[in-house]
Amino acid sequence: MSTIPEIELTSTVAQATFQLGKLKELISYLQNHSPYYRKLFITHHISNDSLQSLTDLEKIPTTSKEDIQENNFDFLCIPKNQIIEYTATSGTMGAPLTIALSKNDIQRLAYNESLSFGLMQLDANDIVQFMLTLDRQFMAGMAYYLGLQQNGASAIRTGPGLPAMQFEVMKRLGTTTLVAVPSFIIKLIEYAQKERIDLASLQVKKILCIGENIRNEKFEFNALGRFIKTHWNVQLFSTYASTEMQTAFTECEFGHGGHLHPELILTEIIDQEGRTCAPGEYGEVCISHIGVEAMPLLRYRTGDICCMHYEPCQCGRTTPRLSAVIGRKKQMIKYKGTTLYPPAVFDMLNQCSFISDYIVEVKSNDIETDDLVIHISTPLNVDECERKLKPFFQTTLRVIPEIVYKSSYEIHAMQFPEGSRKAIKFIDSRKNQNL
Ligand SMILES: [Zn+2]
Fold first, then answer.
1. How confident is the model at residue 2 (pLDDT cuts 50, 70, 90)?
2. Which CATH superfamily hosts domain 332-429?
């Protein structure tokens, strides 16, 4: 098992002092090397003297995804011949961003993911099957792979898809740990049921669940997590990461949020105006890099909505933890006096076995709030479905949206509009999507 870094065990005051020093270094570095931030600092009269404590961070304007989209290479702080790797965001939310990395940035990524595997208590005896893309400019795949090399466990790069091959490898090599998207784990379970593969006979004990939530706001398993746990006796670990952050936050064995890494990144939860939210309050994750050379970011708004937990964790780490991402800021729905995010609606619908398929749509109305419409297909007749669904909406979401019944064919057509390779579950038809 990897040892826990000293800084993740010290007092929160010591962590803040360390981070303040690193942020001052970041501001000096950006002033000297970043065309984008140099201009921003001149306009807003910012220097490293502007920071006397971490609360002064609020004086610094935030950076958005659009800022990077419009000025991508003005964020580059090193000569191009020192770039070791070009990665890119997936482009599911607008044009892809290029994130370039130096040799040290790649080592920083590897260190980060070795901490993730340390949180999962993996050691040299573990055999880890990577069921995710390792190429296509995907940063996370590379990061996990390099991180595992530092951890000392063995890697198997099977890539995504192909359940038959995945099971053949698990059996042949005695895989102990999977790294995969939880919805693919569900596909594996369904395949095993169909092919009569006894999951308990495999050596798999742990799964690192990437890209999708497996827990709700109370750290309980959501419908996805519960389904996996019901059918496969494994330990599930959630992780939250993004290409722009160049950092992952993985939960420890106690499963109470992703542990922050103060030596790699400063994480704030902020409101619309860029002010720090109170502990326990949900807001946008905003990050500042520590130790990034090629494209470091200062107060970058991720668009992800989380809250921070400061109470001590049973694992002994003193670092705060991030909740599950409850949604994207731009997808916030204001409906009948309630604020909702699509993942909560998905989780609720995933629990209804009588719904074959669904699409969640949000529209604008005349009174400047949103209308929520759920398109569903079900084998039940409409009355029976309404009798089951409406009380369930009321208890889980506290509101009952409009329900539109469709055939499976119609839902499928909505899920795969022209040019789409991935099924769509959420349609935002609002006039002004940038809330
Ligand atoms: Zn912990």
1. low
2. ANL, C-terminal domain (3.30.300.30)
